[in-house]
Amino acid sequence: QVQLVESGGGLVQAGGSLRLSCVASERTFSSYVMGWFRRAPGKEREFILAISPRGVSTASGTSVKGRFTISRDNAKNTVYLQMSGLKPEDTAIYYCAAGRLVDTFYNYNYPAKYNYWGQGTQVTVSS
């Protein structure tokens, strides 16, 4: 069982930046695809970014392309989500997720590909 704990959420003004972190309990962290998703009030869960197990490849959702980046530090069992140019519509609960690499990496924009989820961290962007 992999436990994921997100942190770094909060209130920020439009145009600002935040960095979210997600720490995993699993020693085999480096074997998992890591992804970030978000859910805004009244909306479906949305894929944001994913990163391959060794950090060589990333995949981005269209709504955040060019503003958000993902990175990981396997030595620290941590994945990061750097968010810049934040907009009020980015307000949501942000979740990190871990998925075993059993499929083509570029299929990991689907929540069903992930085996473990964090509890989420709230990001609120004021206008």
Question: How does this model look, in words?
Answer:
The chain is 0% helix and 48% strand. It has strands spanning 4-7, 10-13, 18-24, 32-39, 46-51, 58-60, 68-73, 78-83, 92-100, 116-117, 121-126.
Give the ordered list of helices and strands.
EEEEEEEEEEE
Number of strands: 11
Q: What proportion of the residues is helical, as a percent range?
A: under 10%
Kindly name the structural category: mainly beta
Short description:
The protein is built from no helices and eleven strands. It is mainly beta. It is globular, with a radius of gyration of 13 Å.
List the helices and strands and how they pair.
Blueprint: E1 4-7, E2 10-13, E3 18-24, E4 32-39, E5 46-51, E6 58-60, E7 68-73, E8 78-83, E9 92-100, E10 116-117, E11 121-126
What features would you highlight for this structure?
about 130 residues, mainly beta, 4-stranded antiparallel beta sheet, 11 strands, about 0% helix, about 50% strand, globular
